[in-house]
Design a protein that fits this description.
- The chain is of the alpha/beta class and about 280 residues long.
- It has one domain (about 1-280): NAD(P)-binding Rossmann-like Domain (Rossmann fold, 3-Layer(aba) Sandwich).
- It has helices at about 35-40, 60-65, 65-85, 120-135, 160-170, 185-200, 215-225, 255-260, 270-280; strands spanning about 10-15, 25-30, 50, 90-95, 140-145, 150, 175, 180, 185, 205-210, 215, 235.
- The chain has a four-stranded parallel β-sheet with strand order 3-4-5-10, sandwiched between helices. A two-stranded parallel ribbon has the order 1-2. Strands 6-9 form a two-stranded parallel ribbon.
- NADP nicotinamide-adenine-dinucleotide phosphate binds near residues 30, 32 and 145.
- NADP nicotinamide-adenine-dinucleotide phosphate binds next to loops.
């Protein structure tokens, strides 16, 4: 959300990590605790709520489905109800994993017009949350980003943090050659939100995707080249090689038709990786 700081008065919420807030002011909020939204936000009024908090790791959601439902579905429902009572615009950050990625004989390339078809518990919670937002809020936007990459905080278990951590330690990593996504440079999320707000978009689902469809392995090849790691540290593997991996489709790549209509141009992977390198070697 750093990209929104210059144009908006921002307040952020945090669960366990106030130190990584992008906003000048922070409010503690536990979406898993009933009543916490009303208590934490009492007396506050916001024009816009951007709801990005979630249990985000698909494997963790698969292992703790009740916890994931509590945070991702009930937590979203409570926040959406609160936003509706304030007459705030509610922007919900969903995911590309609302799709099954199994389009027979076709590449992913899901558009906003495709029906959702989640296969993981994580994806299912996000679909239920999308429905809650549309049901509760008179003014909403659902934004579905693809797999994100950026300079990490060192606190989350994101794909690039994992990649950096292993490669830095000289450990080889296996990367799926048969899972395709439209990798998105994370600062593009804030830029897209700014575009959506300036265009006055309301009550629409929008996809947000990087410009290229790449396998994780192909992304890894670009990554090691930019950061100067030896190519021999990355190895191509298949989704089938991992047993305890939450179900995910082979190709959840997105097409961001609506944002393209709005003139939004996402950052290329080459530019994103270069910017990430300039910002700091990928971790704190
Ligand atoms: N990362 C991706 O590739 C990707 C792709 C598509 C969509 N998304 C979506 O984008 C959003 C942000 O993802 P991310 O990768 O930045 O996630 P992340 O690093 O895992 O961060 C999750 C955030 O949710 C907060 N949170 C978790 N449980 C909470 C709770 N019980 N109460 C209040 N806050 C809680 C965390 O706060 P604390 O750290 O302070 O606890 C943290 O700020 C999510 O909605 C995710 O579904 C992510």
């Amino acid at each position: 959300m750093h990209g929104l700081r210059e144009s908006f008065d921002l307040t952020g919420t945090y669960g366990a990590h106030p130190q990584v807030l992008a906003a000048p002011e922070g409010v503690a909020l536990d979406l898993a605790a009933p009543g916490s939204v009303e208590t934490a936000l009492a007396g506050r009024v916001y024009d816009v709520i951007v709801h990005a908090a979630a249990m985000t790791h698909p494997d963790a959601c698969e292992k703790d489905p009740d916890g994931a439902t509590r945070i991702n579905v009930r937590g979203t429902d409570a926040l959406a109800r609160w936003a509706a009572a304030q007459d705030s615009l509610f922007i919900f950050i969903s995911t590309d994993l609302v799709f099954d990625g199994r389009r027979d004989g076709r590449r992913g390339g899901y558009t906003e017009r495709d029906p959702v078809s989640p296969v993981s518990h994580y994806g299912k919670t996000k679909v239920l949350a999308e429905e809650a937002v549309q049901r509760r809020c008179p003014r909403w936007v659902i934004l579905r980003p693809s797999l994100l990459y950026a300079r990490g905080t060192g606190l989350s278990h994101s794909f690039v943090d994992w990649l950096h951590g292993n490669l830095n330690a000289g450990k080889p990593v296996g990367l799926f050659q048969d899972q395709f996504r439209t990798f998105l440079y994370a600062p593009d999320v804030a830029a897209a939100i700014a575009r959506i707000l300036s265009a006055g978009v309301v009550n629409e689902v929008l996809h947000l995707a990087g410009p290229e469809r790449l396998s994780r392995y192909a992304f890894g090849e670009r990554f090691v080249d930019v950061f100067g790691y030896p190519r021999k540290l990355i190895r191509a593997i298949s989704i089938k090689d991992l047993d305890d991996y939450a179900p995910r489709g082979h190709d959840c790549s997105l097409q961001a038709e609506r944002l393209a209509d709005l003139g939004f141009v996402p950052t290329s992977v080459q530019q994103g990786l270069a910017a990430m390198k300039t910002a700091g070697e990928g971790g704190v």
